[in-house]
Amino acid sequence: MRALTLHLKILILLLVALGVGITAYQIFVLGIPVTADETDDLWNIDAKVEFVASPREPVKVQMFVPPLNQEFVSLNESFISNNYGVSINRVDGNRRVTWSARRASGRQTLYYRLVLTKRYSGEQTKAEGPIFRDSIPLEGPEKIAAEALLSPIRQHSADVETFISEAIKRVNNANDDNVRLLLGGDASIANRARVIEILLSIAHVPMERVHTIQLTDEQIQTPELWLRSFNGDRWLYFNPANGDQGLPADRLVWWTGDEPLLAVEGGKDARVEFTLSNSEMNAIRLAQLTDENTEADFLEYSLYGLPLSTQQTYQIMIMIPIGVLVILILRNLVGIQTLGTFTPVLIALAFRETQLGFGIVLFTVITALGLSLRSYLEHLKLQMLPRLSVVLTFVVVLIAVISLFSHKLGLERGLSVALFPMVILTMTIERLSITWEERGGGHAFKVAVGTIIAASLAHVLMNIPELVYFIFTFPSVLLILVGFMLAMGRYRGYRLTELFRFKAFLKD
Fold this sequence. Notes:
Strand order of the largest sheet: 3-6-1-13-8
Number of strands: 13
Strand content: 15-25%
Structural class: alpha+beta
Order of helices and strands: HEEEEEEHHHHEEEEEEEHHHHHHHHHHHH
Helix content: 40-55%
């Protein structure tokens, strides 16, 4: 007996741990929303390209577009143009779109539109990049100035990360004569990045220019230059203007390298204008869109991977254990007597269509009339099978009559009585009549009332939208319920109703 108890405790512990672990993994690792009304940011980015086409010349417009790596997920990408051919190719890790036309004249406008989100972006792949580069050749005063700057940089750095930070700090010191010499009077961000690259190249540290767009509510903006270097394990990002390290979470890498964003052949006065707007979308719907548009599989092995019609069925089925749990608690802890365990749950499912109040009335009316017929058939001394057949037929006829009169009276809710489980009603009538014969009308009435109470409570819990969503999204919670049910299977204490029943013993 002691070994059986230990076995049961271990089984309960494993089920609860497994249910909690899977649910926690879905919430904290996959990031699946806990509530149905949770929303996520959705970013709409428009890049408007304008230029003046030269007459009688072919037009070719090339622009870098985001590489669509795993940090952001593209939900929609479109290229809007009039009478232009569109193609996309990859160049040195970048994506570049090319608009082309044989003839165009006057001012031209092209659009690139991107809808993306940062949630559900998938597991990050291992980063790769160069860890060595050749030095940029220098001569004369520039070489001496660069070597003078590198000496303190080496002294105050311990690795690649601190070396780059110290180099940026030195280059941004406008009072240093060596810096002023290398800048040549041009203190722009692009020129400072060039000087930083020179210093890093002498130390054979590779560096890339990264052009980013900030995902903010500021609608119109221009790309911002950042620097990055690979330390053998991951990319290190630096802001050349102030030395800040680490690419902010609201930054989208648009392209990398030294080439300009836009290149136009057969046109002039070209410019690009970025417009951003933020919106929100239901988080679980966003996860489904992510699965559809990428190779991500957040919901592939969940119930959301089923067809919609099947999902609706399982949203009902998966709540049945909740109803069973309610019946278990009412019977084993409270002490309410019902007609079995599953009859109240099936009646609760029927209440989904009839609604609770109208369903109770219909159940009471049909059961009362069925009991009257069952009492009459008892006087005819019929066997059980013919008796059940007559009662079932009566129930079907009674349901049809109620539906017909409800329709004539304009009570459309009465039409849903046809969804009541006829076999369950028939067996309910039969079992109530047997209970009446064996233990009296009072006990039968108590059992009928207990069944209605249990079915009503189960119906209320099984139709809470937040609970339905949570159980459907995290079905591993059912393992925790099974653990609780197993624990309840060894309960041998008093029920709540028995405490009142045996209250007199406490006085003695």
